[in-house]
Amino acid sequence: MKKTNLIVLALFVFSMAILSARGRSDDVDDKKQLEITGIIKIKGSEPHTSVTLITEEGINYILTGEKSLEIRENYQLKTLKIKAELINPAQAFMPAEVEVLSYKFHK
What residue numbers bound the domain in which 9 lies? Predict the structure, then answer.
């Protein structure tokens, strides 16, 4: 009887491991797209600077991608509305990282 319980428990743990691994791979494939409005600021000091968008609520997003270079050069301290893809979600002491897909000047 104990051997049967041990086998059932092992199969349960194995099936849960497979299901949880499958869930993580699905999450990686589905990138979340966002539409965010905020002020553009350059943070840090050379060579470790980042282009950051700060919303009215005070949420920071680090901007990446080719379009972030255009934003860095032309829109510092301006308000932009961007469409972006979430690359890394926010973590403790680290803002979310997004890749800019498109942007427009916002009054």
Answer: 1-30
